[in-house]
Amino acid sequence: xxxQCMQVMRxxxxxxxxxxxxxxxxxxxxxxxxxxxxxxxxxxCNDCRDLDVxxxxxxxxxEWRCAVPQCGQPYDREALENGLLQIVRxxxxxxxxxxxxxxxxxxxxxxxxxxxxxxxxxxxCKEDQSEFRNRMEVFSNVAVxxxxxxLQECTSWILEIRQ
Length: 163
Known about the structure:
The protein is mostly helical. It folds into two domains: 1-30; 31-96 and 127-161, no CATH class. Helix content is 43%, strand content 10%. Helix 3 (77-96) runs parallel beside helix 5 (149-161). It is flat and about 60 Å long. It catalyses: DNA(n) + a 2'-deoxyribonucleoside 5'-triphosphate = DNA(n+1) + diphosphate. GO terms for molecular function: 4 iron, 4 sulfur cluster binding; DNA binding; DNA-directed DNA polymerase activity; single-stranded DNA 3'-5' DNA exonuclease activity; zinc ion binding. Belongs to the DNA polymerase type-B family. DNA polymerase II participates in chromosomal DNA replication. Its main location: nucleus.
């Protein structure tokens, strides 16, 4: 019942925007990757917000301003870049210090020198290299779009090593 209602609603919405139901424009596209920088504090009014540095409307045009209507002061771009840089370094450190997991029983590797699990399975890293690379590419894109030089150098160095 719910899926039928959703299909009817989708068809009606497509009719409203004058797009045929099976046209390429009606197909769902996965949104671009995003990252939210937590706890950004305005130095003028002390307003604390989480900023989506990839999808924020004003942030895309490099207008890093406080969203409070009475304030509107620009954020400290150096502090924002430093916050992003700390997150990149933390994620890199966590990637290198991650646990090994058994492919058979999904147990975390307990013995340092063993090549195989007690059940006979092989070990793999918990986070795949491609996942880590995709996350670093998001930060690299932010660095390029926002002209954060230090962040760009750091992410490009990390991505260079991983090739």
